[in-house]
Amino acid sequence: MAGEHLMSAQRNERTAAKLATGARPVFVKILAAIGLLFLVAPILGILSRVHWLSLWSQLADPAVRDALILSAWTSAATTIIAVVVGVPLALLLARGHGWTAGFARAFVVLPLVLPPVVSGVALLALLGRTGLIGSRIDTWFGFTIPFTQVAVVVAQLFVALPFLVITVEGALRTKGRHLEQAARTLGASESRIMWSVTIPAVRTAIIAGAALCWARALGEFGATVTFAGSFPGVTQTLPIEVYYSLVTQPDRAIAISVLMIAICVVVLVSLRRSWSGRFLRDT
Amino acid sequence: MINRWQRTLVAAVLASAVTTATVGCVDRSGGPESGDVPNASIHISAAASLTDVFTVIAEQFELHNPNTRLSTSFGSSSTIVDQVINGAPVTALATASEATMNDAVKAHVIAGTPQVFALNQLAIVVPAGNPANIESIADLGRTQVKLAICQPQVPCGQAARELFTRARVPLVPVTFESDVRAVLAKAASGEVDAGIVYRSDVIAGGTAVASIPIPDSINVSTRYPIAAIANSEGQLVVGKFIDFLLSPGAQLVLADHGFTPITAKSR
Predict the structure, then answer these.
(1) Chain A residues with CB-CB distance to B82 below 8 A
(2) pLDDT in tens, A254-265
(3) Which of residues 123-182 of B touch A (CB under 8 A)?
(4) Is A14 helix (H, G, I), strand (E, B) or coil?
């Protein structure tokens, strides 16, 4: 009797699992396979071009090392700034109503869909030497932003910040509202609610958003080359190094590309295991 | 509900069918009236410095050869050579140096022998009004002067490097740009105090820029070769275009745009 019960329970569980997964006809599986192949195949293509024996010597080149160091710290700085200003922006957007919030949301999405080179032109128009603000900075402080590492971070921040804001805002819309209300009825102050209820509720989303933001910053090319230019060790990031060496030193370009793929895979996989995995499952 | 969707769908399909039919009719009636010469269309991939002059010459060529369609695209010489080697669908290639053309020749993508059709010399380009008061190439060695040059892989970058070696001036740019027009743009927008471009680019920059002379004794010149791409269709037309480029009329256009025309002797 007990055994039968157990078996039927297991069967029920299996049926329930099947029901939960929904309809998956064969054509869906075929199209999905095509989609996945389209994403996987180019990575295999680049791996087929790698000269594994000379890979290390290509990457040990001082020019590559300089670009790697530059890319590492600028993308890290971008991510930190993005968290500091992006999380508050997401907080306001998630709780905001009316046309101002809609307006702000549109501008947050804009850099996602803008061609990066247009973002670069926009940054030049504002912060360039002859730009709206840039010209004043030049007159008052004798400092121009383009062609500096500041420009690299500014370009990265402009294109990568939306990734963090959108991820965190999405989580805020679905999470923590009831707890916030409960905390408010218990008389907690607004800042106490934010620090002990809201932020912990979306912690995983902040980390996932920061990872996406960082990956986008690391890969930034168009806005950087337009706004910051390209000089080895100063503004020539890894993607620019890839583009410039593609013609004359294709082996080096491939080696750097593999390095960037490896870095991104390691970071995203480890995040998926610890934090973003939970975030992705939860939402 | 479903009915309404179906109706919308049918209407959309009908509308698109009618549109296609109408456009088709227009296309047929608007085509060439008599087919005495078969239509040919060629695509020339050319160095960035040729952007303006080739656009003008291509229009003139089409006027002389009404059945020919000529399209152009531009990029740094090393980039366009790389694209052709990787199978870009072009019929002819025009580069800003013989060295980059030789890369294409060595890769066996060129039909016949490249033909030099113009020369160009370097120029110092400054934003209009010359904000940094550049008077000679020696001023470009000053550390506070912001200088843009081409990246070393492209002809204008190599030529700039040679110029500074000859002038014995330290070369300290703030940026290496991907092609010569990117250098021009940085100077025209005032983001840099000076850039090293070709004389033809200064003319292309119009009133947004001015140029500072470089003494002939140290100036670096480059030669522009053009060639048909092996196994491409329309090589006959490319031959006609090359003849046209070397004709007095086209050479005059090249000279107007700051290039040095090629004489029979220097060919």
Answers:
(1) 246-247
(2) 999 999 999 988
(3) 146, 148, 151, 153, 173-178
(4) helix
> So what CATH class is A60-282?
mainly alpha
Please state, for a pLDDT cut of 90, what percent of chain A lies above it: 60
Range A103-111 average pLDDT: 93
Q: Which domains does chain B have, with CATH numbers?
A: 40-119+223-261 (3.40.190.10), 120-221 (3.40.190.10)
Is the Cβ–Cβ distance between B93 and B44 less than 8 Å?
Answer: yes
> In terms of CA atoms, which chain B residue is nearest residue A144?
B191
Single out the residue of A40, A117, A86 nearest to residue B178, CA to CA.
A117
Is B187 within 8 Å of B126 (Cβ atoms)?
Answer: yes
Torsion of CA B192, B195, B197, B200, to 10 degrees: 60
Cross-chain CB nearest to B175 (options A235, A246, A247): A235
Burial of A146 (0-12, 13-18, 19+ CB in 10 A): buried
Tell me which residue of A212, A147, A192 sits closest to A134, measured CA to CA. A147
| Smallest CA–CA distance from A249 into chain B, residue | B153
- Rounded distance between C-alpha atoms, residue B39 and residue A132, angstroms: 51
DSSP letter at B259 equals: P
CA distance B55 to B57: 6
State the smallest CA–CA distance between residue B85 and chain A in angstroms. Answer: 11
Q: What is the pLDDT of residues B36-77, one digit of tens each?
A: 345 688 999 999 899 999 999 999 999 999 888 899 999 889
The answer to whether the CB atoms of A129 and B153 lie below 8 A apart is no
pLDDT in tens, B216-248: 999 999 999 999 999 888 888 899 999 999 999
Structural domain spans, chain A: 60-282
Confidence of residue A268 (pLDDT cuts 50, 70, 90): confident
CB A40 within 8 A of CB A32: no
Of B25 and A53, the structure prediction assigns the larger pLDDT to A53
Considering the entire predicted model, what is its pTM?
A: 0.77
